[in-house]
Write a structure and sequence with these properties.
alpha/beta; 12 strands; globular
Amino acid sequence: MQTNKTLRVLAVAAAGPSASLVIPELLKRNVSVRAFVHKPEDEPTVQKLGLTDIVVGELSDAPAVAKALEGIDAVFYIAPAALENEAEVGKQFVAAAKQAGVRRVVFSSVIHPVLSELVNHADKAPVEEALLDSGMEYVFLHPAMFFQNIGPAWAKVKETGVYGEPWSTETRFSRVDYRDVAEVAAIALTEERLLHGTFELCAEDNLNRHDLAALMSQVVGKQIKPIKVEIPAQANMPPKLTRMFAWYDKHALLGNSTTLRAILGREPRTLRAFFEELNSN
């Protein structure tokens, strides 16, 4: 890739909770970043990050995608949460990127995209295949469950002394602070050392909800009780979420921290430190 001062990177879903963490890492490296956001109301979010080059549109809107990709060298791609027809939209984006002359795509995929029962995992595999077939440079990031998913519930956990999710309290997960993933993404976009690689990204520890609650209790200084949240039948839960919760009820989702540690050259951020940040805020 060219020097960072001339490198133009498109951040897809730039106002989202993941890509918005990648943007500061790119700006630290003096990269020119264009934001692709879903709606006009998202523009202030990326403007606060320091961006002025902003394209608004749907990933399924071919003219908007073409406009976003014009003159771009590399793309950070992540599918927005609850994206309809995720696999097909992703494949269409890959084709549009190739047509636009993009050289590299860094895809924030998911840990274990081979899990066909988990639609949000399986939908990533066809996009990876499209990138492999495209002839463009690529890097695949396979992050575990994000620490940041816990953040929105923190205030309620402290207030009620209860932490619940709609699957077994015994299920163990690997997790990762997406700020560490963002740093890896920036490296992948601006350097050559991760090129054509697939990287499982996890912090240390494989914790169940009992472990999480115990850690929360230590940080907040009061007892936090772990529970399984029961979803009412009338809740009209999307089928793919129902399948995901049923799978999580019976299966762990685990990975290894070695790769993340090696790429960063330091220890990954810890869940305890993340909880301490939440508690101090």
